[in-house]
Amino acid sequence: MHPSLRVIVFVAAVLTLVLVSTLLVAAYERGAQRFRFSRGQAVTGTTTATTAVSIDAIYLNPELGLILHYPSNWIPEQGGVSAMTLPTRFRGVDGFFELAVTGEPGMTLSLAVNDLAYGEEQPYGANPRITAITVSGQEGRLIAATDPNITDAAILVPFPRPVTLNGQSAAFLVLHTDQAHLEALAAQLRFVRNQSGEITGLPNILVYEPRSNDVVDGTVSIVGVARVFPASPAGRENTLSLRLVDPYTNRVFLEQTTMATAPNAGAYGTFAIDLNFPRIENLRSATLEVFQASPRDGLPARQAGTPTDVVAIPLRFAP
Length: 319
What we know:
The chain is of the alpha+beta class.
């Protein structure tokens, strides 16, 4: 082959290789952008991508009168509203939410937004993005930073009726979260009055603490909400049964009862108890069961009743 022809062929091959490499890089970047969007991260501009956020756990708080669905990999943390029986702060590796209350009865929404978004600390930057939303018929606001270095955001919405905690009334709910979960949580938030028969589609017992496979040592703190139906005899309304079971033999080695603070039969109430248990030689784990006795049987489960609405949580004992 003539030398000049070989040079032309070589140059053509190099140009073809460069073109193919450029197309592959562009395709990869487009695929990466689509992947980042599907994970629910913030995108440029004023839109937060939340379409693929997994919201599959239920949080019901009768004291605040709200239901919220949230990611099941988020676990309770200390903090939040100190006057609450239930945990009000949950966190996971990919985000969090924390509940708070603010504003005296009679405060306007615009004033509450101004205090939260433009206070001295400016938690959402100097120029936050504020968007109108509606939660259970209540007009509220989404507040998020436009500064890409600030990921915190908040949902501010007035309660249908002011709530009272420790003798103090508050007019607004504040749900602090991260921008990646802001719109998804807002879409899953609703207010309820917690009257008998009003809340449907939820389990009768929800346990927030302990979590599955928590390590415990001598005491386990149990916190949750329950809707306990009267099971006769009189005086046992709102009674829950708790027991620790050997997962290998099904032997019950501890059983106790506690009360849910429901306002009336058929409504949800909170419960919290520290269950002290003996150490069993060579036993490294147990199953915590929280349940109510069957109304049909009419007796406590330890006597003759059939456990219903059983929530079973595997626990590990500290060495």
